[in-house]
Specification:
The structure is a homodimer. The first copy, chain A, has helices at residues 9-23, 30-37, 41-48, 51-76, 80-97, 106-114, 119-145, 155-175, 179-191. The first copy, chain A, is mainly α. The first copy, chain A, has one domain: Tetracycline Repressor, domain 2 (Orthogonal Bundle). In chain A, helix 1 (9-23) crosses helix 4, helix 4 crosses helix 5 (80-97) and helix 5 (80-97) runs parallel beside helix 8 (155-175). Chain A binds a DNA duplex through residues 1-6, 29-31, 39-43, 45-47, 50-51.
DNA sequence: GTACATTTGAAACGATCATTTCAATTAAAA
DNA sequence: TTTTAATTGAAATGATCGTTTCAAATGTAC
């Protein structure tokens, strides 16, 4: 009986991610979201709840995309160390392609802007961080079995180190938009594992 | 002849830094600054210009404090590697002491929130980043002369790596508020230099 | 004590914020 | 075609935003 939702939900979220990522949560107005998505104000509230609800849905979308990118790399890579290398290179390329147009990793931005003001978001970010560490731990563990990664430190220690370094890279990249420098940083980060 | 400024400018800036650092620029209202500093709204505009002007003054204050902390460490340290170690430990302690109360490094927050929306701020942040890299480069260079730091990579490469890692540590620390984990990260970061 | 330049307090500015309201429109089901 | 329930558009809500205004209060120099 009812009229059905006409817009493409995926597209709307995608556009919302772009907007939030480029302006941050607090600087993004509902009007910005209306303009970016093409939806009417009331449609956004009808379909997504509130600005914060939509933002959190964007975080999940960004997380899903990130994980898919990593899984694709894992499938294509022939060794653990090259998986890690490619993950870092992907992030490097990501930072560089943003050509001064955006503010590093969406999660880093979210962490500094929201983590200590919204419990729902802090919870999400911690869970995301833990799962990223777990993901790296699995890769490193396998690499240590293959002897492609040294055993100076255990997989768990290397994992939290790598996640931290990756976050640093994505912050640094905002101010240091230079291919050669970022490449050098990645090399140095990964040299610990050799 | 004139009535003279009665408030303590240092104190006011200090309180403004706390406020901006804890809420970010966009979430901090002029009323928040009035409450935090005890100044009247008009006094703030009279003495500091605008909200943005005050924010930039806060960035300079934070930069000055950070540099003073590092200089104190440099004077007290007996070797380059221990200088670097202490800088990282200071930042670790800083993150931990903030007990879920604040959002990592003020500069990281500023980078993700403001770098691509305010040219004056982007300029400041890049200059700050360059000077931090230079500072680390000098320390590493000296360490390499003393043979307390290896020469696998040159001082400049280690410097940008260390600055990046430090930024990562201060982001990670917001979500990973655990002494043992942070200590392990710092150890791994510094192990490259051995 | 008077004159003067500045700070101060309170109110007001117009703009914009996130959200709500509600009548008109729409399209599927009867 | 009529019924029906959701979507849509536009206007309005009350709150808050950064900033300005201006008269009163203040403290220094004469």
């Amino acid at each position: 009986m009812p009229k059905v939702e006409t817009f493409n939900r995926e597209f709307v979220i995608q556009e919302a991610v772009k907007t939030f990522h480029s302006k941050g949560y607090n600087l993004t107005s509902m009007q910005d979201l209306v303009d970016a998505t093409g939806l009417n104000r009331s449609s956004i509230y009808n379909s997504f709840g509130s600005k914060l609800d939509l933002y959190i849905e964007c975080l999940h979308k960004y997380q899903k995309d990130t994980k898919e990118d990593i899984e694709e790399i894992m499938v294509k890579s022939y060794s653990s160390i090259s998986t890690i290398q490619r993950i870092f290179c992907l992030n490097m390329a990501d930072v560089l392609s943003q050509n001064n147009n955006d503010n590093g990793c969406f999660f880093n931005q979210c962490t500094t802007e929201m983590a200590n003001h919204e419990d729902r978001i802090k919870f999400f970010l911690i869970e995301n961080q833990v799962s990223m560490v777990q993901l790296f731990e699995d890769i490193v563990e396998q690499g240590q079995k293959n002897e492609s990664i040294n055993k100076n430190k255990n997989a768990s220690e290397y994992a939290i180190y790598l996640v931290t370094a990756l976050q640093g890279l994505r912050i640094s990249g905002v101010l240091m938009n230079d291919n050669k420098q970022l490449k050098s940083i990645v090399e140095t980060i990964l040299s610990v594992l050799e």
